[in-house]
Design goal:
The protein has 151 residues and is α+β, with helices and mostly antiparallel strands. The protein has a single domain, classed as 3-Layer(aba) Sandwich (Endonuclease, Chain A). Helices cover 42% and strands 12% of the residues. Strands 1-2-3-4 form a 4-stranded mixed sheet. The longest helix is centred in the last third of the chain and has 24 residues. Bound molecules: zinc ion. Zinc ion binds next to loops.
């Protein structure tokens, strides 16, 4: 592309929404995929609380873990329950079920491939569900983290 050339114009077409307004906002409120700032910040809070040190956030490595511990070779992924198909409450919209379940399946397959990629390179993969970050689940999460970080 020459310096003066503009990028091609992108046509934005209005797609009819498959959801009514109410359902749409319910769905969107559950959309929490990876890289979600609030879940990452919450996990940092927890790391600090348990004095877990040595993490790096958004370290540029293939597979994009949310955090890595380079010394321990631990890759941490925070998975949004909706997108990554956690078997917890409110992650199965009734409308468009086939579409969402196909999408979740793709994400899960991808997650699995990424996990295998890391473990094959000698890394430990720690996946944390979004719902595990809730205050009421702190005890369980502490147990899980304890297993990886010998708390
Ligand atoms: Zn969940």
């Amino acid at each position: 592309m020459s310096r003066n050339e503009l990028p091609p114009k992108i046509e934005v077409t209005q797609m009819p929404d498959v959801y009514d307004k109410q359902t749409r906002s319910a769905v969107m409120s559950k959309v929490r995929s990876r890289g979600n700032k609030s879940t990452e910040l919450r996990l940092i809070e927890i790391f600090n609380e348990y004095k877990i040190k040595g993490w790096r956030r958004n370290y540029p490595v293939k597979g994009h873990p949310d955090f890595v511990f380079l010394e321990k070779r631990v890759a941490v992924f925070v998975d949004g329950c909706f997108w990554h198909g956690h078997n917890c409450r409110n992650t199965r919209p009734k409308q468009n079920e086939e579409y969402w379940s196909a999408k979740r399946k793709r994400n899960q397959d991808h997650d699995k491939a990424v996990t295998e990629e890391f473990t094959s390179r000698g890394w430990i993969v720690l996946r944390i569900w979004e719902c595990e970050l809730k205050k009421k689940n702190t005890a369980l999460l502490r147990e899980k983290l304890g297993y990886f970080f010998s708390l």
